Amino acid sequence: YSEDEMMETNKILHQEFQNKVMQNSETYQKMLEERQRLPTWEMKDHITAAVNRHKVIIVSGVTGCGKTTQVPQFILDEALSSDSFNANIICTQPRRIAATSIAERVAAERDEVLGRIVGYQIRLEGDMSHLTRLLFCTTGIVLRRLEGDPNLEGVTHIIVDEVHERSEQSDFLILVLKRLLVRRPELRVILMSATINAKLFSNYFDNCPVINIPGGIFPVKQFFLEDVIEKTRFNYEDKTLEHCSEQIASDEIPDSKLSKYQLQLRYPGYSFSTINTLDKMKFEKLDFNLIAHLLEWIVTTQHDELPLDGAILVFLPGYEEIENTYSKLLDTEEFKENKDKYIIIPLHSSFSSDEQRSVFHKAKPGIRKIVLSTNIAETSITIDDVVYVVDVGRMKEMSYNHSRRMKSLDLIWVSRTNAEQRKGRAGRVQEGVCFHLFTSHMYKHILRPHPVPEIQRNSLEQVVLRIKMLSVFRGEDIELILQELIDPPLVERIHGAVQSLKEIGALDSQMELTALGYHLGSIPVDVRIGKLILYGTIFRCLDATLTMAAILSYKSPFVNPFKKRHEAKKMKLILSEHSSDIHTMLRAYKEWWQARDEGRAAAFSFCKKYFLSSKHLEMICALKQQYVEILSSIGFIRKGIKLKDVQTSATYSSDGVALITGKKVNLNNENNELLSAMLVVALYPNMAHGEIAIFEIDSHLTIQSNDIVNIHPSSVNSEIVFEIGSFLVYHEKVRTSKVYIRECSLVSQLSVLMFAGGCIEVDVSKDPPLISIDDLIHYKTTQLEVALSLKALRSELNQL
Ligand code: ADP
Ligand code: MG
C-alpha cells in the first residue's frame, strides 16, 4: 500500500478507536475491567514510557500476568490516541497455536473482529488485512519476511515473546534485530520473558532496561512421587522390609540404582509399601496406570488439605501419551460410571484453534475439567481455573542424533525450571496443589537446572541455511555471524553443519546456496528428511517417500519383543522386500493400510501377526500429513491434496495430485529401484560397501578400509552375503559389542552414482580430483547401463 493509503487508513483507525473509547461499548468495558485486574496493567504507563525512551526493553513477569495480551495493546492504544497515529506492531510467538489463540483473545478484548486492526499469520494460515496494525505471528513468519524485506519496512515495533524459551529461531531473530537496529535506529524492540534469565538478554543489548512486573502466584503445595504413592496407595503391597544396615547412598546416585534399603534411608518416614513400589517402578517408563490412578484419587477422595473444585492440568510429553492417558482414564471405574461429571480436553499444538478454544471455558458447577496437555500450557497458554497440576516430568525435545546424522525427537526429563513453571500453573486463582511424578531426590539432585537452549542441542544446518537466505548477511563469514548469538556455538559444530550441507548439495563448493538449499531452508524439518520429500515430489513417488520420511524421522513400525525375537524376525522376513529394511517397512505399512480398510479388527490382527505396532503406524500416518502440508506451503504440491491414507475421509487417485505447473500427474510411483534411489538421497553418506566383509565408505565414496561394520541381526539383510561392488545405505550406526548398522537397504550402483551427494570422487589414488555429478551424468549418460560396476567406471574415468 502507498504511504497515502496507509495514512488514510490510519486516520480511520484513529477515529474508530476514539469512538470506541467514547461510546463505552459494553463488551469493551467488560473486557477492560478484566484487563485492568491483570498485574501488567499496573505497569502500563511505565512500559509505554520505556518503549518511547529506549530502543530495546525487556518485560519480564510470571506467566499469566498479562504480558502477551496487554503489552502490545498498551503500545497500540498509546499510538492510536494520537491524531498522527502511525504504528505497526509485530508480536512473535514460538508456536502456531499461541499466535492464533492470542490474536483471537486480543481482538475479543478490543471488541474487534479478527483480521482488522488485530490479525495473525502462521504458516499456511492467517487473518489480516490492510487495516492490521498489530500482527501476531510465529517467529518463522518474520524470518521469512526478512528474506525479501531485510529492514522490516513500515514496522515500528517488534515484540519478541517468550524469549526465555531460547528457541533456535528466536535466538537467531534477536541476533538479526540487534543488527537491524543499527540500520533502523527508530525501530523499537521489546523482548518478553518469564521471570527466568531476563538479565542475560539485557546484557546482550548493552544492559537495556528490564521492567519486572510485580505480583506472583498463590502458594502451591508440592508433592513428589513418593508422596503420590504414599497418599494414593498405588500398588499397595503390605510386605515388610527388613531393617537395613546399608550406608546412605551419595546424592549423585539416582533412586533407580538404589536397593530397597537404601531407598528407605533416603526416604525416611514413608511406609514399606511405598518403598517397595518405588523400588519396583524404577522410574524409567511413564506409568499410565499411575497417572490414571492419581487422577481418580484426586477427584474421588475427600481431602482436608486440598481444594475440592477447580480444573486439573496434566503435563504429558506428546500426542501419544495424551492419547494413552485419555484411554486409560476412560477405563477407570470412576470415569466409566460418571461420564457426565467430567470434561476431558486434550491440548496439543497440532489441534485446530476451534478444538483449543474449549480449554478456556470454565466448567459448569459440578463438572470437573481435566486438561491433558503438552508443555504448551507451561508458558504459552494460560488456563485460569487450574488448581491441580499433575507433572509427569517428561517432555519431548528435538536434538541431533549423531549415530543417525539426523535430528530426532527424544523423550527427556524436564529441567527444574520446567517443573517450577508447571507447578506455578496451579496457583493462578487460588492456592493450588502440584504432583510431580518423580521423586524429591530426583528433583533436587538429578534434574538439570535449566533447559538447554535449542541452538546448543541442534545441528546448525537450519541456521546456516537461514543466514544464507538473508541478503543482509551476503558475503559475510558464517562463523563470525554465529559468534554474535547469545550462546555462540562451538566452531567445530559450525564446520560440521557446513560440511553436511555441502554433502547433501544444499551449498555448493563456493558456499553459495543451491536451489535445493533454498527450499530446505524454507521448511521446518531435518534437512535430510526435507531433501527426501522434495525429491519424492520431483520424481513422483511422493506417497512412498513420505512414508519413508516418516519412518526415518520417527521409528520403525516393527517391534522387537525381547522374548519373541526369533519369531518376530521370521515374520518380518515374510514381508521382506528388495533386500531392504525400509522397503519391507513400506510394504508392511501398505498392507496394514489395506487391512485397516477392512476394519479395526483386521488391522489389529495384521499388526499382531507381523509384530507391528499400530501406534507407530498411526504416528507415521500423522507425520505424512504434516509433510504434505509442508510441501504445499512452499508450493511443491497443490494445496489441499490428500493422499489415500492421510485422511480417512479423502480419496486419493492418480489425478488427485497436481504439481504446481498445473499439469496433473501421478505422484504415486512405487517402482522399487526408484525408491531405493530416494533412499540414497536421504541417507547418503551413511553408506557401506559389500566386499566379503562390509566396509563403511566415507562421503567421497572411498572405502575406509578399517571400518568393518556388521548388519544388525534384526535386519532382513542379516543373512545375506553381499557381492563385491554392492552398496548399502543405512539409517543408523550403533556400537555395542561390534559396530552394527541397523536398518539397511541394498541400493544399485546407478542410484549411488546419480544421487550420492553433489560430488563424486573419480580417482581412488591420492589427491583425487572432484568431478560434479552433473558433469558425470552428462558424460556418461549413454554408457551408464553398461557401466555396471562403479569401480570399473572409476578406472575408466581415471584413464581419461
Ligand atoms: P502472559 O503473557 O503474561 O503469560 P497472557 O497475556 O497470555 O499472560 O494472559 C493474561 C490473562 O489473559 C491470563 O490470565 C488468561 O487468563 C487470560 N487469557 C489469555 N488468553 C485467553 C483466552 N484465549 N481466553 C480467555 N482468557 C485468556
Ligand atoms: Mg505470554
Automatic annotation (TrEMBL):
It comes from the Eukaryota. Residues 293-471 form the Helicase C-terminal domain. It catalyses: ATP + H2O = ADP + phosphate + H(+). Residues 48-214 form the Helicase ATP-binding domain. Keywords: ATP-binding, Coiled coil, Helicase, Hydrolase, Metal-binding, Nucleotide-binding, Zinc, Zinc-finger. Pfam families: DEAD, HA2_C, Helicase_C, OB_NTP_bind, WHD_HA2. It is an enzyme of class 3 (hydrolase). InterPro entries: DEAD-box_helicase_OB_fold, DEAD/DEAH_box_helicase_dom, HA2_WH, Helicase-assoc_dom, Helicase_ATP-bd, Helicase_C-like, P-loop_NTPase. Its EC number is 3.6.4.13. Probable ATP-binding RNA helicase. Belongs to the DEAD box helicase family. DEAH subfamily. This is Putative ATP-dependent RNA helicase DHX57. The lineage of its organism: Eukaryota, Metazoa, Spiralia, Lophotrochozoa, Mollusca. The gene is LOC106061124.
